[in-house]
Amino acid sequence: MGVVSAVLYFFSQHPFLSFPVCLLLGGLLVWWRENLLWLVAAFLLGTFNIVAGQMVNAAFLNAVGERGTGVIVRSEETSSRLNEQSIWRYEAIVHTRDGRDVETTLFTHTVSLWPLRNEIQVPGVNQVFELKYVPGYPRNIVILTESSAHGQARQRLAAREVVEVAERKYRFSPGNAAFEQDYRQAMHAFIQANDGDPNQQVAVSRYRRQLRELDASLPP
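User: That's the sequence. What structure does it adopt?
Assistant: Structure tokens below.
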């Protein structure tokens, strides 16, 4: 598994460099097997890797990897950009199950995260996070966002944002029955989903109070 992890690390961390590598391997297979379909397959593989290489790597590590912890020790903005956004470079330490400390490097556009989502959730500097790795190649990691403090904090913010959006609509037009109903449903859903979370008790108490205030404002 260590060899597989090392290969996936190269392909996921260097998607544009791996593209000509795929074409070179495809050309060698065409020369050996005398079939141009190998070159077509290599082109498709290289293109797919540019788009989803880190996703494949994340799924692999989540499926077969061991749990460990890590911490970002340095972050810096690079001169490279992707989709008009700056690419950040992170230096991290991986603490393995057997007590080793391994240094690795991450980039915002190639970091592997699990679960797969259309957003980048890299922990802040000096913030410990949960991860998975293959013992044979621990430099290759997937960050487990739902098991890490930074990911859980973002989930709590996202959950509260649903209620806050509904509240803004209601406050703007309190006479709108649809807005009031959406506001009530959002608060009920939040309370039901987060009543047992000690980190959400302030918000849970506030939404319970706001529901009582809404009920008190109803005509007898």
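DSSP finds six helices and six strands in the chain.
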